[in-house]
């Protein structure tokens, strides 16, 4: 298997280099959502559409049926929402050291989000202004499995709380002993989130976006697989969403000053998501070959070696470019979710040239895990090249703006003829008259 890994090392001098990069992009986009034109993608999109219609028609019984089908749990209606007593007990059972770390992480995220928040307030500029108000009700999707994901709750709910969102709803599949993992529930309690439902996958998104089961939310955020992301895309318009995100990505820019052991470890930390994209862009043949050796060596010590190797073969690459300028150009085209720059004293200089990335981690001592759990910026980030137009989730994503216009009699009089002229040019006589009638007294 380790010799098979040699194929992830490619060079810009290879005749099929451009095609290999394009294939990598295509694999990631297809893994993000059912966006292909093949029969399987179409069938899955049709299933999402069917699920939405089913919930609209049958309400909770449809959600129950889909949950039984995909999660293997049959929940009565009275077991759908997690009671306050269960949240409180889950919180009580969290170990003291873990709870202390959770609380420190919450403080870090809350502090960062408060610093960057533009504020839910009104700004005036003479006779115009803009009013920012918080979204009222937000749904948070928290993936579930055998392991808890407290960081997802922190990184989505805390920014919403900083923005002033009054109602936060958490949904997560009942896959841990037919329930949501108690650590996830305990973090909800720590944050004062009382509305938590045992539902995941596409049916969770449909539930949040409909009034048929619970009260509909205004925005849905949080990670998830193809089904979740495709359902979010289907729901968009009826509700807002954070983005349509795919598998976790890391792209590392490194030169000869980088430590190949650390670069390999950072690639593996993303590949173990399976799927998870782990790509190295470098201008150094020497570093590239040493990182490949390290990948093979470190893989042997991983519990999920086979799955991680498969993921590297599908979504991982070590790419050698002729120059650092070519590296930067291709990074901006790739627009990665996580971008690490390990180029010694040149790292900050290179970071200044990056215009498309979800989050940038500068230097040897800033692995993605620091951002995933601790630093303060949300780890909910755009993937699949969407960092060209989507941003990292922040408190500012939970407010909306309303334009304000207040003209005096004198200000309207000064602008009346221009407004009338523009309205008449568009053939909208009533628009023009609404101004003219005020000038006639």
Outline of the structure:
The protein has 441 residues and is of the alpha/beta class. The chain folds into three domains: 3-32 and 246-375, Rossmann fold (3-Layer(aba) Sandwich), CATH 3.40.50.1980; 42-241, Nitrogenase molybdenum iron protein domain (Rossmann fold); 408-439, no CATH class. The protein is built from 17 helices and 14 strands.
Sheet bearing the most strands, described?
6 strands, parallel
* CATH T-level topology of the largest domain: Rossmann fold
Quick one: CATH class of the largest domain? Alpha Beta
Number of structural domains: 3
Q: What structural class do the secondary elements suggest?
A: alpha/beta
Strand line-up in the sheet with most strands: 1-11-10-9-12-13
From the structure above, extract its key features.
single chain; 441 residues; alpha/beta; Rossmann fold; six-stranded parallel beta sheet; five-stranded parallel beta sheet; 17 helices; 14 strands
Structure commentary:
- The strands form three sheets. Strands 1-11-10-9-12-13 form a six-stranded parallel sheet, with helices on both faces. Strands 6-5-4-7-8 form a five-stranded parallel sheet, sandwiched between helices. Strands 2-3-14 form a three-stranded antiparallel sheet, with no helix packed on it.
- It has three domains: 3-32 and 246-375, 3-Layer(aba) Sandwich (Rossmann fold), CATH 3.40.50.1980; 42-241, 3-Layer(aba) Sandwich (Rossmann fold), CATH 3.40.50; 408-439, no CATH class.
- The termini are far apart.
- It is of the alpha/beta class and 441 residues long.
- Helices cover 47% and strands 16% of the residues.
- The mean pLDDT is 92.
């Amino acid at each position: 298997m380790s010799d098979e890994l040699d194929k992830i090392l490619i060079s810009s001098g290879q005749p099929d280099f451009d095609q290999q990069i394009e294939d990598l992009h295509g694999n990631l986009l297809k893994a993000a959502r059912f966006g292909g034109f093949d029969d399987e993608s179409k069938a899955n999109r049709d299933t999402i559409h069917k699920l939405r219609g089913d919930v609209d028609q049958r309400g909770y019984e449809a959600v129950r049926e889909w949950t039984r089908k995909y999660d293997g749990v049959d929940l009565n209606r009275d077991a759908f929402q997690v009671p306050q007593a269960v949240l409180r007990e889950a919180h009580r059972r969290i170990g003291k050291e873990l709870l202390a770390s959770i609380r420190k992480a919450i403080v870090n995220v809350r502090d960062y989000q408060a610093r960057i928040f533009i504020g839910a307030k009104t700004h005036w500029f003479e006779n115009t202004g803009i009013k920012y108000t918080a979204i009222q009700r937000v749904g948070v999707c928290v993936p579930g499995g055998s392991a808890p994901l407290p960081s997802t709750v922190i990184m989505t709910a805390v920014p919403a709380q900083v923005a002033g969102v009054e109602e936060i709803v958490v949904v997560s599949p009942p896959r841990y002993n037919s329930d949501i993992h108690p650590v996830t529930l305990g973090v909800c309690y720590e944050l004062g989130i009382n509305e938590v439902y045992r539902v995941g996958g596409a049916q969770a998104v449909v539930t949040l976006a409909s009034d048929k089961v619970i009260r509909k939310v205004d925005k849905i955020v949080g990670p998830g697989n193809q089904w979740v992301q495709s359902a979010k895309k289907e729901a968009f318009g009826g509700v807002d969403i954070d983005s349509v995100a795919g598998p976790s990505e890391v792209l590392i820019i490194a030169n000869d000053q980088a430590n190949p052991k650390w670069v390999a470890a950072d690639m593996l930390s993303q590949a173990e998501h399976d799927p998870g994209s782990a790509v190295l862009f470098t201008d150094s043949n020497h570093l590239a070959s040493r990182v490949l050796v390290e990948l093979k060596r470190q893989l042997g010590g991983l519990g999920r070696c086979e799955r991680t190797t498969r993921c590297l073969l599908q979504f991982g690459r070590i790419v050698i470019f002729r120059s650092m300028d070519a590296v930067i150009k291709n990074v901006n085209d790739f627009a990665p979710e996580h971008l690490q720059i390990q180029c010694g004293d040149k790292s900050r200089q290179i970071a200044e040239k990056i215009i498309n990335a979800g989050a940038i981690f500068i230097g040897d001592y800033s692995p993605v895990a620091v951002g995933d759990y601790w630093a303060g910026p949300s780890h909910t980030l755009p993937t699949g090249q969407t960092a060209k137009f989507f941003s990292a989730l922040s408190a500012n994503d939970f407010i909306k703006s309303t334009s304000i216009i207040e003209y005096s009699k004198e200000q309207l009089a000064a602008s009346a003829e221009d407004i009338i002229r523009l309205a008449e040019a568009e053939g909208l006589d009533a628009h023009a008259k609404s101004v003219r009638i005020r000038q006639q007294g």
